[in-house]
Each structure stands twice: as structure tokens, then as C-alpha cells.
Amino acid sequence: MLGEGILKGLAETARNFFLSYVSAERLTTVEYPERRIAPIEAARVFPFLVYDGPDWAAGLRCVSCQICEKECPPKCIFIEKSKDKKPDALGKPQFYPARFDIDISVCMSCQICVEVCPFEAIKMDSVYELSTTDRFGGLLLDRQQLAKPNTYYKEIHPTEAAKVDARLAAEKAKAEAKATAAAAAATGGV
Amino acid sequence: MIKTMDQIFVLLQHWLVSFLPAGLRPAVSVLLSVVVIICLFPALFALTTVFERKGLARIQNRLGPNRTGPFGFLQPIADGIKSLTKEDIVPASADAAVHFLAPIVLVVAVFMGFAVLPMGRNMVLADMDAGLLFFFAMGASTELSVFMAGWSSRNKYSLLGAMRAVAQMISYEVPLLMSSVAVVMITGSLNLTRIVEAQNQYTLGFPHWYIFTPWGFAGFVMYAIAATAETNRSPFDLPEGESELVAGYHTEYSGFKFALFFLGEYLAMFSISGVGTTLFLGGWSAPFSWLGWVPSWIWFFSKMFLSIFVFIWLRGTLPRLRQDQLMNFAWKFVLPLTLLNLMVTALWRFLGEGWERWVYCSAILVLAYVGMGLLGMRGGNLGPRRYRYAE
After folding, report:
1. Does this complex have an ipTM over 0.90?
2. Topology at the third CATH level for domain A47-149
């Protein structure tokens, strides 16, 4: 019958109209500033730099290899390599970033920097309230603003962080085993 | 007391005018009515925008605006301040004079329509003998302003929107007029006041509204379809289809000129609902004889708002038509049915009182509707469309 579908549609919208006043679970809107949804593990906004230990400057995992800077499609990462070397988590002397800036007004949250990083040093953050009154300086984050502890990373992405920690621990164990083997070989040689 | 409440605005006007010398009275009394219309309907427009946004939100299980003022009812004030303070941009290549005139022509033409609308007993600004004709003449001149806006903007979206608008409005003007002609045939008058008075009679407490007759019901449905298309409301909002044409003919308008277009659109909706109410829903007459003590203007405005609510309900329900569907619907379905309705109306008139005319007229209209429906849906490809991309 002609017009049947229109009447069905009208009935459906009328039901929505009236029931939305009756049942609260129909309304999916979360009124944001007062209420917010629980943090979502898979959420990603902008990258941050992971550091181990209590001191951010000493514990940054980044070794300034500049792969992320080269891979970044919109070119929002700026890295200045250090002249000297500092020991990393495994005790190996490494370069460190003298400057590490991310312009989050340019960043498109593609996560490519995270994918290419061989040192698990850069990860995606889930903080989204980043508005500022200064659109140039305020949106250019330096390495101190970007540095966040590994505990924070575990908090926001627990599953992913557990895998990363396991991998790093395995690498460290391997390195230590190699070092002891080398030491044993050295002592054996003497 | 009942009489006083019914006539309160008329009495107020007479009282205000009585302070003036006799020579000035007619002119000032008209001026007063004009000022009231010009203030009242934009105020109702502001109210309608917030009700529409909240209603549409509820239809989609959302909350709608609720931040400005109590329950968001100060939203139109915020919108008004915003559109007043926006920069008025005129494209460099636009025809500046026509671009400037288009919104003014629209609002003026739409306001003129209210002059003949009987909003209550004795509450009509110009009680013209050819009131209905005047109303449709004014309604048709809005097409001019729409095309002025689209043409003068020198923007392809504006021009496409205006061309669609003109094609649509001219197509649907035919069924709009044809469905109201049925009322004129029965009443024998183009005067809107007399049309209301003809419906303001009661049998066993029920009113003689034209919607309660077979031809009146069919006419009302057709009038409602044509009115929706005439005011460019969804599902006939092709002229401003925002997903296709940015904003249609008012793409290049900003600030207060855009607000005027918005206002004109809603005022057209009010006036066309008002005329629909007058023609088919008994205008300011009460729905039952025992409700006659309620002031007549309350009935008129509640019926008008009921029509507005249906407009909003339709907007929240139906998707936009395609241009060819729109044209086919107007010329192949609505127009033949309105023509048939005219014949049925004539039959109704000449069958005289009695039950036969109810049976014959209803049977003809129902058969025609079902037959046209079967004929139109014969093609069969009405199910979900299969998309074939690069197969």
C-alpha cells in the first residue's frame, strides 16, 4: 500500500520522541564538561615520550635516532641530536635528544612515529583537553612537556604496555646474558 | 466576560485608537495591527527554532540545546546576537543591489501574506474579498526573491539551489492551488473570513470542518504535501540540501541577511499553516461546540502550531527526495489526484444532503489513491538499492 512506509517511519520517530522522555538509557549523550565517559584503552590523541625511573631527563628512552622525524608524514617532529653520549637503561652509552619538539597543531595522530620507533620510546597519549590561548607556542610541546613516566603508559594502555615491558625485559635479560657470557669468555681467556 | 476575552485584542486596539482624532483612527489602527503582526510572528519564529531543535533531537534520542538559559530556551537570543554580530560578506563578483534586495523582498512578500489571515473572530488585518487569491499571489512572489538570491550571488551552488527551488515551487504551486480550489467551490467565496464562518457550525456538537469530509481530507493531505514542498521543508528541501549544495540559494549570505532568509522561510511556514488551518481545519472555530467559550485566537494558534509540529515530525522522519522523484511525484501523482478531487467536490455539491455522497465520494477517492499507488509502484524496484561500483 502506498504511504505505508511513511506511516511506519512516523510511528518510529514518534516512539523515539516520547520514549526518550521516559527511559534514560535511550539518550546516549554524555554531557561532557560535567560528565565524561570512562577512559578507553585504544584511544590515541598525540604522541608522548616514555621515560624510566624517577628523573625524566635521565630516563628518556629516546636515543635521538631521528627515524620518527623522517617518517612523520606532516613533519611535526623536530629533533636535535646531542653531541655527547649518556648511558641508557641497559647501561650502553647512547645519544639523547637535546631538543625534541612536536607541533600538535600539525600532528595528525597517525601513530606512524610509534610504529617505527625501535626503542619503544614514543607512544600515543590519550589526553585530549589541550586547548590553549596561544596557538603557536602553546601547541609546540618540548621534550619536558612530552616526557611521561612508564607508569603512566601502563596506566593508560595496560595491555600494550605489558607486552612492551615483557619485550624490553627479554632484551635486557639477553643483553645481560651476553655480557656475562662475554665476561666469562674474557675471564676464561685469561 | 467570554466575549471580552475572545475580542480582547480588537477591544484593546479600539481603546488605544480612541485617544486619537477621528481622522487619524483608520490609519493608526491598521498600523497597530501591522506592528503586532511584525513583532508577534518573528517572536513565534524564535520559539519555533528552539522547539524544532529540541523536537528533532528527541526524535533522534538526543538531548538538544539545553545550555542557554532554562532548558535552553534562550538559545534563539544567542543565535540572534550571533547573526547580528557576524560580518556581512558580499562576494566581489556578486550583483550587489540584487544580492541586497533578495532577503528583503522575501520577508516583505511573506509578511504580506499575513494581512488576509483571520487569526480570530474579527481579527483580520485586511478582510479582502479575494483574500485567498491575494495570499497565493504573495506566496508566489517569494520565488522571485529566491531566484534573485541565487542568481546575484554568482555561485554555482546558489544558482543550482535557486533553479531547483524555482522548479519545485512552481511545480507544487499547482496542486497547492488546486487543493484549495475545492474549498472555494463549496464555500463559494475567496474570502478567508467567510470560509471560516462556513465551517463554524456544529451538528451534534461536532464541527463542520472541511477535513471531516472525503474531499476535504484528500484536499488537506494534498495541501499539506504541496505546502511542505512550497516552504522547502524536508523531505522536499532540495533547494538547500546541505549535503549537496552547501546551503542552496543562500550559500553566499551571512550575518543578518542569512537570518532574514531563515526568518522568511519560517514565516512562510507559519502563513501556509495558517491558511491550511483556515481552509480545512476550521480556522479559529472550536473543535467541539461546548468548547466555544475558549477565545477564538487560541484555537487558531494551537491549530497552527499543531501543523508546525507535523512539519517538524516529517522533517525528523523522511529522507530527502531526488529531483526526478520530486517532479514525478508532483506531476504524476499529486496533480492528477487534486484534479480528481475537484470533480469529487463537484459531485459532493450536487449529490445534496444524504449518506450517498459520503459513500460515493470516499469510494472514488480511495480507489483512485490505491489505483495510483499500484500504478506508481508497479515498477517493482522499490526495495533496497543495490550499489554496483566497478564490478
Report:
1. no
2. Alpha-Beta Plaits (3.30.70)
